[in-house]
Amino acid sequence: MRKKLLLIFLVCVAILFVITNIRNTMQRPLHQERVNNLIMVAKDRIQNNNQLEITEVGSGGPVKGGGWGNHIYFKSYLSENQTVDFIIPPLQSIMGDRLVGKVSDSTLTSYQFGFSNFGVNLLYRGKYDGIWELRVISLP
Length: 140
Fold this sequence. Notes:
The chain is of the alpha+beta class. It is 44% helix and 32% strand. Helix 1 packs across helix 2 (80-95). The protein is elongated and about 70 Å long.
């Protein structure tokens, strides 16, 4: 009896794993396209401003739990507020989200917005030195 129950349990776990994997694989192109569209807009915006300089653009990749994520590192010669006001509004208009949350402590300052499982995080570490990271993530 115990062996049968264990076998049934293992079969159920295997079926759940396969179904989850199939779902994530089918949804991945959607998440990849959403992330890449925002990264492309941010990259174009940064490149077209002589006060901003891209230092690294990620190649993107799957994130834990399914979905897709990517990042851009850039240097800004503008103030913190000017950089935020330059980068965030075009991305908000694409996403349709107007709410920006600011989280700050001595090690990190982050501006976050998004909806459901699709979000953008614009951040810098430590004291403001103009080095920013823009992260975009889309989850199932």
